[in-house]
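Worked example

This section walks through a single chain of length 473. The input is the sequence exactly as stored; nothing has been trimmed or padded.
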Amino acid sequence: MSTMEYDFTVENLGECKIHSPIELSLEHGTYRAAYVKDTTYVRNKVNVFADEKKDANDKTNLMEKAGPREYIYFNPQHVTAGICTCGGLCPGLNDVIRAVVRCLWNRYGVRKIKGIQFGYKGFFHDEGYAAIDLNPDIVDTIHKIGGSYLGTSRGGGDRVSEIVDAIEQLGINQMYIIGGDGTQRGALDIANEIESRGLKVAVVGIPKTVDNDLEFIDRSFGFETAVQKATQAVNSIHMEAHSQINGIGLVKLMGRESGFIATATALASHETNFCLIPEVPFDMDGPNGFLSHLENRLANRHHAVIVVAEGAGQELLTSTNQTDASGNKKLADIGVYLRDKITEYFAAKKIHINLKYIDPGYEVRASVTTANDSIYCERLGNNAVHAAMAGKTKIVIGLVHDKYVHIPISMATLKRNIVDPESSLWRDCLDATLQPVYMVNNINTVTEKLGKAEEEANKKALARLEKVTAMKK
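Given that input, the structure is written out below as tokens.
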């Protein structure tokens, strides 16, 4: 999006006049942990190319660094915080909840923390789910179990006025919303409604998307755990395939529009021979189609392992034309489709195969985090609290170039992060699998299709950016 200029300016509720109860240092060389100043930034663009102008050193490229401030906006004694988790399950939800509660309570002395049950639906009286009080004793061990202690649900984010009514009635002035792309867009609508009512409520998001598809952010929490669990599944299916005559292992993983989990799993497993993702089209039939390459693999190596993201190959299937409660398009089942097509293909050729198909998706989503993911969740939660206490609003906490930053929700949700077929990541995946660059019979059709998809995505992102810019004016 060369024509697009981002704006990473962070909105604040007002001047910070209260000295933080966290005693840190402002000076270097004191051997004490330090406060972070609002004038400390992280660059979005860090790569330098010979044929490009020097990247901008202003709000279009600089992201405000996250962390505790010396002066805060909220008096901790006057804070009532709310926490909710929305969308599908993801490893690390409980780790984030625990981190937010413990930082509020132990570091800032906040004593009123409300847990909103079952996502946005917990705000609605007709659903019958009352908010629950949270404290460190309640959340101390929840990181040891999967799922969400508060429960989660899809949808409801469009009932903005009712949600803000509930926030007012509960007396909440800090709202922590844990969720993905759709959830954070809902959070921005909520924050805008709060602002229109003249309320002083900080809305801070912690980005949760196991598919790792939020723009700018290095990785979303739960992604590493998902890859770890998926890799275990692939290693198991490889042993099954390797032990059979013409054994084929087929594993379907998460990845509606972005194939990061499938790609990373293919790299981590060292056993994947074909990785199929939404960003790279493929043909089933024909001399350069997937089935032909699979047949060649079996002829040469007598077994094969296939990893497919759930959103791959959707153009080959009959669309459901339906959406879920979050507004996501319901996908046709590429795993079952591949299983049946592979079986039919080799049966017609009278070639014996032994195919095993597994879908570990829900097992992955509900699992406990890896140690590194747990650390990440802890630091995301802590930085979310530091931001809210300083009166930051309409932001998500993100990891960019291994630094924690504040990213305006409006920027983080402009478009989805995807695996770039021209990137080093996908190139390394091709090296690991040894699959062809493209499994298609007409390369011109593919490049045209990818070009149109990129153009459409950029148009949508530009339209969203123009809408955000107009609202600020």
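What to look for: The radius of gyration is 24 Å.
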